[in-house]
Amino acid sequence: MSQLSRLARRMWHQLEPIHAVLYFSPEGFDEAARLGYDVQSRWPSYFAYRTAPLGPAGAHLATAAYYSFSPGMIAEHVPAIWDTASPEQVLQARSRAVDRTYRTLLGDRVATSEMKEAAELARRVAESVSVAGRPFAGANLDLPWSDEPHVALWQATTVLREHRGDGHLAALQAAGLDGCEALVSFAAIGAAPMANFAGRGWSEQEWREAQERLAARGLVDADGQATGQGRALRDQVERMTDELAAGPWRELGEARADRLAQLCSPALGAVFGAGLLPMASTLGIATVKAPG
Whole-model pTM above 0.90? Predict the structure, then answer.
């Protein structure tokens, strides 16, 4: 792994929670409820907030962009989410939710010079991404930038998160892993418990059939645990993901990336301290430890 790829992975650990908190915050659910979404489950607001930059996407486009969610689950929400609110209305609510979430988490610290510097550095990285083959990153990069530094910081982390995520899907495809197989192989290496993926909508039969396909390739054993070959393939996926995510960090360089991480530390600590993120992430990164 190159130094730049390692930097990309390290910054992902630093920035991912800053982005992800929207999908779990009370303010995020409140704004979604004001639009008319059912917030008893987190999925209607999740699909609305995350899909809205793509415009009034249909089920096929959403399935292509999300990849590891069951097409059946996607079809339950998309395009029905646009019957409740338009993508433009959702994006406005999303910005309000981010603003409110970070004002709750950080209070007066949203208006510091450090927050402004963090937003400027993060935006510089985000605007340097290559959007080729990266629909989620490109769609978010097309949105206007907020004048509020804390909202602009969230926007930048979102572009970077989606840039990495789009690249990750390319790595999964290169490894010959379909959407369900991607989750089964990830659970097989112990990165996250199988139960954590129940929300992705795959049936027990679909999960079992994916496991059987992986076993036929020698990637999992009879108990569904990863073989040496299976672990090697997942390592290959992660290496390729890091390599594909590395480009934007060349623009910033390691010293300024370290500065960005330092500037984001209060926001990261506030997210962890609030306990809003799930105890066990499906991403394979820690979500409950405060930065040390």
Answer: yes
Which candidate, 190, 99, 204, 103, places its Cα nearest to that of 152?
Answer: 99
Nearest to 137 by CA among 165, 114, 111, 115: 165
Question: Packing angle between helix 3-20 and helix 149-174, nearest 10 degrees?
Answer: 120
Residue spans per domain, the chain: 3-172+239-274
Long-range own/partner contacts, residues 94-99 (CB < 8 A, 24 or more apart):
94/22, 94/31, 94/49, 94/52, 95/146, 95/151, 96/31, 97/22, 97/25, 97/27, 97/28, 97/30, 97/31, 97/32, 97/49, 98/22, 98/150, 98/151, 98/154, 99/148, 99/150, 99/151
The phi and psi torsions of 129 (rounded to 5 degrees) equal -70, 150
Whole-angstrom distance, CA of residue 25 vs CA of residue 2: 36
As given in the structure block, the two tokens for residue 291 are: 């930065």
- Kindly state the DSSP code that residue 168 receives in the 8-state scheme: H
Q: What's the pLDDT score for residue 292? A: 32
Task: Tell me the H-state helices in 67-107.
Answer: 71-77, 81-84, 87-106
Q: How far from each other are the two terminal CA atoms of the chain, in whole angstroms?
A: 24
One-letter amino acid of 44: P
Question: Residues 16, 155: contact at Cβ < 8 Å?
Answer: no
**1, two tokens:** 């792994």
Count the Cβ atoms, other than its own, within 10 Å of residue 151: 22
Give 10-residue mean pLDDT values along the chain (292 residues). 91 96 98 98 96 98 96 97 98 98 97 98 97 97 98 98 97 97 95 83 96 98 96 97 96 94 97 88 49 32
Instruction: Identify the pLDDT of residue 1.
Output: 65
C-alpha to C-alpha distance for 168 and 80, rounded to whole angstroms: 27
Tokens of 207: 């999960």
Residues 249 and 7 sit within 8 Å (Cβ to Cβ): yes
